[in-house]
Write a structure and sequence with these properties.
alpha/beta, globular
């Protein structure tokens, strides 16, 4: 059953090193991970790739590329260049995909359609390099509360529209925290499956109350998201990859030992997911 779980290493941001996080995962039989670029940079790309290879790990994604909109052409080009570097890192790690958190409104702009066009243009600019590198690009729609500053793509359908415009090699990362509320969720997931564009499935839970919109995600089973129902939709759409646990929890899970966090994630995978 642990083969059905991937640990997004954001869940283990308790000060552990990259190697320590891997040890915590392996101790509980978790052999799939999704690191963040800063965590890879801290240990060095070559060393991170060596650790992945030596332990036979599957890298279900690298977090993150994106953040395409900018106020100036020079800023947009700098973002494109950084995304090309992220593609190289994902390729070196053998990642299943590069997850894209696409970015919000640049500067003081109020032009949401314009920001979304910058996103489409930016992904289009890096797509040839991604294809040549064998790295699929997974757009992660974020909850609308992040539309201004983090992601102007807020539904699976919006992400799929961009992917359809750009063609092969662009899909979606479906994070339950961001899409559970969508009244069109079932149809959108089915569409993503028909188009062969589901690249990742992220899980956590939505707490009531939530004390911080970014850093107070819940452990699966502690909130209100119907995780089995969404999992059933995703599997019915044809995706059977690992469920990737991604929990930002500054005041709870990030304060706990990694061994405990991974143990609870495995238990909750069995009991509530």
């Amino acid at each position: 059953m642990t083969q059905q779980l991937s640990m997004n290493l954001a869940t283990l941001r308790n000060g552990s090193s990259f190697a320590q996080m891997i040890d915590d995962c392996l101790r509980h039989g978790v052999t799939a991970i999704s690191p963040w670029r800063d965590q890879v940079a801290a240990v060095g790309l070559a060393e991170a790739a060596s650790i992945v290879k030596a332990n036979g790990l599957r890298v279900t994604g690298l977090c993150r590329g994106g953040m395409f909109p900018a106020e100036t052409p020079e800023g947009r080009q700098a973002n494109i260049d950084d995304n090309r570097r992220a593609i190289d890192e994902a390729a070196a790690l053998g990642a299943d995909c590069l997850v894209l958190v696409v970015g919000g409104l640049p500067g003081s702009s109020r032009d949401l359609p314009g920001a979304r066009q910058m996103v489409a243009d930016g992904i289009g600019a890096i797509l040839p390099h991604a294809r040549a590198s064998g790295v699929p690009l997974a757009i992660e729609p974020l909850h609308p509360m992040y539309a201004a500053d983090r992601a102007c793509v807020n539904t699976i359908d919006q992400a799929l529209d961009i992917a359809a415009q750009l063609g092969d090699g662009v899909g979606v990362a479906i994070d339950v925290y961001h899409v559970w509320w969508d009244p069109n969720l079932r149809a959108a997931i089915a569409r993503a499956g028909r188009e062969g564009r589901i690249y990742a499935h992220h899980i956590c839970d939505w707490l009531v109350p939530t004390t911080d919109m970014l850093l107070d995600r819940g452990m699966m089973g502690d909130g209100v998201i119907d995780l089995p129902a969404i999992r059933a939709m995703i599997e019915a759409a044809g995706y059977h990859g690992p469920q990737e646990v991604e929990i930002f929890s500054r005041d709870n899970w990030w304060k706990r030992p990694g061994d405990e966090v991974v143990r609870v994630c495995v238990e909750r995978l069995h009991s509530v997911c």
